[in-house]
Amino acid sequence: MKTTPTLSSILFFILLASLSGTFRAFSQFQRFDSSVVLSVYNGYVSALKSKDAIGAAQFWNTEDKRHYPVYDLVLAPPMDSMFIPLYFNATTTVTSFAAMGECCRLELKHQMGGQQITENRWFINENGDPKLANLLFILAKGHQLVSFRYGHIFILDTCSYDKSLIKAADSAVIVVQKMLGVPPRNNMKLYLVNSTTSVLNYLGSIPGRSIPMNNMVISDIAKSSMSLDQQIDVTCNLMQHEMVHVLLADTKEFGVDPLNERFIREGLATMLFGTGGLPFSVFDKTVQTRMSQGIVPSLAEVYADFWKRNVNESYAYAASFLDFLHHTFDKRTFQKFCRAFQSHPNLVDNVQNVLGGDLDTFDSSWRKFVQTKNIIVPTIWAGFQPF
Ligand SMILES: [Zn+2]
Predict the structure, then answer these.
(1) What does the pLDDT look like over 311-338, one tens digit per residue?
(2) Do 6-140 and 143-251 agree at the fold level?
(3) Which of 11, 71, 234, 244 is the most exposed place for a label (fewest CB within 10 A)?
């Protein structure tokens, strides 16, 4: 239940190290030898350059390895097409080294064409050898760890409601299995972080992120300025929303995520556990109100302009439409519809081919459904306007 000074001391050293533009070792820490750390890093990079994924994985700490061969980046998604060029085309310079007892860090600058990218690499000692590790893994050490049936929750802050989190994590897996026919996954790692710390800077200003390839969720712990009931609800909803992404992305049917598929992916996650920490009913109610005011765009527009409007709004319309389908069709048809986007990302065609009918007809049926719906918003969120 207690936190250690790990995070603040790491942040202190980040500051300290960033003041120094040159490579240097803090000799008072004997546990890391900078030249050994550098050789580990170089070994890793040369394995990557020769496309030796298994060889590259040897340089990662065993707990981080799980079942994927190569891990990379601070948050440790495996190498993907976006980051591979860093290693093949860039000139990399190590600009600083900082050891801090538990771990050490290399700051690297990659020069690619006219672009410079700064990146940190973290190492921990494993049986006396420095091994690459992702930052969250390091930060989670010494913090509260609770287990649920399908994995672990790392709570990088103080949190009095871990029992609720365990229940929420278990139920997310079960709900996704029941509704979407997606099997449970084991060894999920859920990192709950306090966004007032710099950890979330790596994610941008978003409350949560899923890294399905690594079985990993990172999401925000609600602010203590809320009531305890609200805090619990927000933290659980955020975590569960991201868990849906992890659970869906590992299945054949939902695996790839072309950008326009967010209609289905975000729609499903929002329909089940809301978004931004607020439950779906809050969004559902707002959609209902806006429909009565005649200001809800057509489904065709929602689909086409998904990223052009407030994200909460797009997520809410997608979720509301999927909820309508879920109540209207049998489970198999509903799942078939959601999965159809995987091979054919086209709302008009999938409505036609799987549900049988044109989008405009379904659009008006959706509106009728929402208008007559009895939506119960929990009292703690009564009157809340998410967009
Ligand atoms: Zn999402």
Answers:
(1) 899 999 999 999 999 999 999 999 999 9
(2) no
(3) 11
Ligand 1 centre and the CA of 213: distance in Å?
A: 15
- pLDDT of 112 reads 67
CA of 264 to the centre of ligand 1 (A): 10
Mean pLDDT of the region 332-349: 91
Report how far ligand 1's centroid is from the alpha carbon of 85 (Å).
Answer: 27
Compute the distance between CA of residue 149 and CA of residue 188 in angstroms, rounded to an integer: 10
Using the predicted structure, report yes or no on whether residue 225 has a pLDDT greater than 70.
yes
Ligand 1 centroid–CA 36 distance in Å is 40
- Supply the pTM of this predicted model: 0.79
CATH architecture of 143-251: Orthogonal Bundle (1.10)
How many C-beta atoms lie closer than 10 Å to residue 44's C-beta?
23
DSSP 111-154: EETTEEEEEEEEEEEETTEEEEE-HHHHHHTTSEEEEETTEEEE
Distance CA 294, CA 119 (A): 48
- Enumerate the domain spans of the chain: 6-140, 143-251, 261-387
pLDDT in tens, 228-287: 999 999 999 999 999 999 998 866 555 555 555 789 999 999 999 999 999 999 999 999
Cα(298) to ligand 1 centroid in Å equals 22
* Ligand 1 centroid, distance to 273 Cα (angstroms): 10
Query: What is the spatial distance between Cα 139 and Cα 242, in angstroms, rounded to a whole number?
Result: 20
CA of 29 to the centre of ligand 1 (A): 42
Token pair listed for 179: 């509704």
Q: Left (φ > 0), alpha (ψ -120 to 50) or beta: where does 363 sit?
A: alpha
DSSP-H helix ranges across 274-330:
280-292, 299-304, 311-328
Calculate how far, in angstroms, residue 234's C-alpha sits from the geometric centre of ligand 1.
Answer: 14
